[in-house]
């Protein structure tokens, strides 16, 4: 099913679906390999966030001034400081973030505080950051 999501997204991007693009070789190949109703259902279900979450690493970044750590997908902007850890899943990076908590703001390899976004992301994995 994941391959169909990628194919559907690529097809939509290549055909310029929002600008009324024309049929391309990629679109023809996609519709020949997959029934039209399944392609439409898959395209509706597939989002850029789905693809990003399946292909990216999660990172733990530490802001240099505040010592606050943030959890996010690797390609997401803005860059909020130095990357101190990378993991393939949100659960793993949240566990790492929790393990790196320290009360000493001078320790640049640890997290003195956590951003609201980091707390929210880790709550989705039922991990409570200090």
Topology (SSEs and partners):
Layout: H1 2-15, H2 25-33, H3 36-45, H4 48-55, E1 58-62, E2 68-73, E3 82-87, H5 90-99, E4 113-114, H6 116-123
Parallel strand pairs: 2-4
Antiparallel strand pairs: 1-2, 1-3
Helix pairs in contact: 1-3
Order of helices and strands: HHHHEEEHEH
Largest sheet: 4 strands, mixed
Instruction: List the strand order in the largest sheet.
Output: 3-1-2-4
Number of domains: 2
Summarize the structure.
This protein has 130 residues and is of the alpha+beta class. The protein is built from six helices and four strands. Helices cover 45% and strands 15% of the residues.
Description of the structure:
The protein is of the alpha+beta class and 130 residues long. It folds into 2 domains: 2-52, no CATH class; 56-123, no CATH class. Helices cover 45% and strands 15% of the residues. It has helices at 2-15, 25-33, 36-45, 48-55, 90-99, 116-123, and strands spanning 58-62, 68-73, 82-87, 113-114. It is globular. The two termini are 38 Å apart. Residues 1-25 form the signal peptide. It comes from Sphingobium fuliginis (strain ATCC 27551). This is Lipoprotein.
Q: What labels describe this entry?
A:
130 residues, alpha+beta, 2 domains, 4-stranded mixed β-sheet, disordered N terminus
């Amino acid at each position: 099913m994941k391959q169909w999501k990628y194919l559907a997204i690529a097809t939509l991007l290549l055909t310029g679906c929002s600008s009324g693009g024309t049929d391309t070789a990629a679109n023809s190949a996609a519709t020949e390999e997959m029934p039209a109703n399944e392609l439409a259902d898959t395209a509706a279900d597939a989002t850029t966030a789905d693809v990003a979450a399946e292909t990216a690493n999660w990172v733990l970044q530490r802001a240099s001034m505040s010592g606050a750590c943030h959890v996010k997908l690797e390609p997401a902007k803005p860059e909020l400081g130095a990357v101190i850890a990378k993991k393939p899943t949100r659960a793993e990076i949240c566990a790492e973030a929790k393990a790196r908590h320290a009360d000493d703001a001078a320790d640049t390899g640890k997290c003195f505080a956590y951003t609201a976004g980091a707390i929210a992301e880790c709550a989705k994995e039922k991990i409570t950051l200090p």
